[in-house]
Amino acid sequence: MSAKVSRLSDVARTAEVSVATVSRFLNNRLQLPEETAARIRRAVAEHEYTPNPHARNLSLGRSETIALVVPDIANPYFARLAAAVEREAGQQGYALTLCASLNTLQREREYIARLSGSAVDGIIFVSNHADDGTLRDPINASSRRVVILDEDVGGVVGPRVFSDNELGGYLAGRHLIEMGHRSIAFFGGPQAMRSTEARLAGIRRAIAESNQHVVIRDEFFGAYSPEHGRACASRFLSSGSEATALLVSSDEIMIGALEIFRREGIRLPSQLSVIGFDDIAPFVLFDPPLTSIRQPVEMMGRRAVDLLIRSLRGEDLDRVIEYLPVELILRGSVSHPRAGKRLPPSADNQKEGNEHDEIDA
Amino acid sequence: MSAKVSRLSDVARTAEVSVATVSRFLNNRLQLPEETAARIRRAVAEHEYTPNPHARNLSLGRSETIALVVPDIANPYFARLAAAVEREAGQQGYALTLCASLNTLQREREYIARLSGSAVDGIIFVSNHADDGTLRDPINASSRRVVILDEDVGGVVGPRVFSDNELGGYLAGRHLIEMGHRSIAFFGGPQAMRSTEARLAGIRRAIAESNQHVVIRDEFFGAYSPEHGRACASRFLSSGSEATALLVSSDEIMIGALEIFRREGIRLPSQLSVIGFDDIAPFVLFDPPLTSIRQPVEMMGRRAVDLLIRSLRGEDLDRVIEYLPVELILRGSVSHPRAGKRLPPSADNQKEGNEHDEIDA
DNA sequence: AGCGTCTTGTAAACCGGTTACGTGGGATTG
DNA sequence: CAATCCCACGTAACCGGTTTACAAGACGCT
């Protein structure tokens, strides 16, 4: 089938020069008189020569490959991130290998270990669980070759890129307060994480600036998962909370929460205003269309790649942290608080469908 | 920072044997008396030795890495596929490199070229546009190292994994007919593609089996994109089509179409019943929850990896084609056809929200 | 004693590039 | 005219593994 692949030496022989000459010529490390250059070009074409990447990697000590470690690629948020990272990496001449950590320290460490084995040149590292310290040391040990993305890992030095979570919390909080809400619930991610803290801090700043008496009523923390969303929503409803508005810290949590609200016949936004976070899912088409904080996912991916590659080239980026701006996307899931009292969940107030509330302009 | 990484020779020196002995011992190609074995094991541990992958790859001529070529990773459908592929590959000891083709032949060919350069051992190839023949030859030239997934590429020999698109069309068609629809519209993918043809063929089989007079009214073909979905929906509405039901060939197309239907105030399912295809997006939460054909995405990914790896090991799988079963997920977007006449689109029948129809059991 | 056969191991040739160093010859310079 | 420099390229040593070919010693057998 495919003819034997040609090697550098084949080209050299045909061009009647040494392998060194061909290698250096092809890598632009050598000016040659046009005649010789043409001979080499002709030989390359004739043999359809492409350098063997394994040999090149071994010789060069690098592979022009970076790894992206994410908890789960099927998650649309990480998928978008991965797409952006792949794109930018590709443009810079790097291939991308994909690693799903499933949020386990075990696998995360394994992937970092690939660095020292130099299977990949660098890693973009996204985790979304708290670190017990196990991650910090191996990451720091391979300094200049890791950038942290999306969620901080305590104690590592090195370039980091995040979305501006505090701003997200702030924008959401301000909007809710402006709409008249005075009691706000928060379905957060894992408690110990910087992003969760920052979002909460943002809400608090909005409260402080408002000069109103606003309280954060029900704070629930847990995994970025529909399960956690369902749990939050159930606890929220059965607590009989007086909160009239809700900030939900991720699409995944939102999806779970909405399932429960729908099942329990909670009408949005008249009985409860909600704001999402991430805005990756097609929230325009939800019932109602969801107002949401949008994360700058594409830009995060690109910035991370850029920092990593510059870092690999030797720049000292250890102190750089980028916070990329989020946006508030206004849709139909926030209204003024109304008197519509929510019922605690029970077996018999489940409805087949639910009515779509009118939306306040 | 990190101490110099150790090489095989370091281990050999410490263990007081030759490198060949260590290598063969570590690769289980040599039985050694316990005493020697222990010395080597101790030396390995002491040096924290891991073989240099580049050297290994060069020597072995393979890299235990496969590539997944998809049009776009951000697309949740491909993201799910990628997750499944990564998972299965990882379990079989293979790394996965991710390649976004953006549906361009140019890039698809580049990625296939990486095979002959042996940057990767094999490729799982997903395209979703028709091939003009350019793909067939390079793929066939690297036989035993490519598996085609999800959408056929004309003329290639080699293992292939698809979902059972014909069955999908059939299940959708049968359901619609059973619900009383006699005029069905079809928003398809690209016309020339096998998957599109198969789905249409499925509907036709359902019609034939029904012994009813059923017609397929508006067939629109185009890209798997929201834009195409919007275009389909606009043309469909302005054509004043009499179709009472609609099969939409992908989540992406559906998302675009729903935008238009919503904007034009079309009520689902009373004015129009719809069935989706893919069922990756959280359609439960849509308005109304969407009935949909679900593709066996996880299984497709796993099967593709399995076939590829067996193929790499030399098995002759050139004739195997797997069709994996789809399911019909019943939700709320299909009802009996009603008299509710749809209005052609105009500037003044746009509504802010839309009412949620009751759903027929 | 002589011989075949394990066992245990070594030396060296690969894999296919990159690159430090060297060299012959013509042009330039003191 | 010798010394120097530059051009155009060659030689060979890497990179760090795997693997083939082969050898020395132990052991058993005749």
From TrEMBL, chains A, B:
CDD domains: HTH_LacI (cd01392), PBP1_LacI_sugar_binding-like (cd06267). Pfam families: LacI, Peripla_BP_3. Residues 6-60 form the HTH lacI-type domain. Gene3D superfamilies: 3.40.50.2300, lambda repressor-like DNA-binding domains. Keywords: DNA-binding, Transcription, Transcription regulation. Residues 337-361 are annotated as: Disordered. Residues 349-361 have a biased composition (Basic and acidic residues). GO terms for molecular function: DNA-binding transcription factor activity; transcription cis-regulatory region binding. InterPro entries: HTH_LacI, LacI/GalR-like_sensor, Lambda_DNA-bd_dom_sf, Peripla_BP_I. It comes from the Bacteria. SMART domains: HTH_LACI (SM00354). PANTHER family: LACI-RELATED TRANSCRIPTIONAL REPRESSOR (PTHR30146), TRANSCRIPTIONAL REGULATORY PROTEIN (PTHR30146:SF138). This is Transcriptional regulator, LacI family. It comes from Kaistia soli DSM 19436.
